[in-house]
Amino acid sequence: MEVINLCEHDSLVSQYMLELRDKNIQTDRLRFRTNVKRLGQIMAYEISKRLQFADRDTVTPLEVAHTRTIADQVVLGTIFRAGLPLHEGLLSYFDNAENAFISAYREYVDGSDEFVIRTEYLASPSIGGKTLVIADPMLATGCSMEVAIQGFLQKGTPKHIHIAVVIATDQAIEYVKNHLPEGVDATIWAGDVDHVLNAHSYIVPGLGDAGDLLYGEK
Predict the structure, then answer these.
(1) pLDDT tens, 54-81?
(2) Do residues 128 and 72 touch, judged by C-beta distance below 8 A?
(3) Cα–Cα dist 35/71, whole Å
């Protein structure tokens, strides 16, 4: 499984990640959502380089132009609720993508730090043989992503899975790698990768609760 950390090389991603992490700047909820959407757009562009393209002749007002078009069918799969701005950014570039949605959330056990992942909703087209892009801002433990992948795979086996996240942890990357179903290949695209997961399973330094920062406290 390949992992691409977009902050390994200086670009606009570095600036957006600074603003997303800064506890003072992130109080501007609109700016926070906009920066997450921007990361989705950047990731869509980078992911597009991995897709298959086909030749296509296009008639211009003057002549026939030999062009290229995306041959893969893309399905954008998003984990509610925090994944929506990333989804919006991806969709603004993949105009003809199909869309899928799944709910996945932590349910803590008896007030402890232990939790299980619950899902209550799945809406998805067939993904068999298609390119699936899954958006979720925080890849902390990898458990929610595992459940989401299992849910989407009920609709078929994709050609490839691209996982688009704002921040991932080393632990989650390893977990997802070890829990991918047989025959499924994936690439993780992260705005950045952090190396610490605390006792509450929160990413450190991270940026806080992405869902709350995007939409307000639950």
Answers:
(1) 999 999 999 999 999 999 999 999 998 8
(2) no
(3) 29
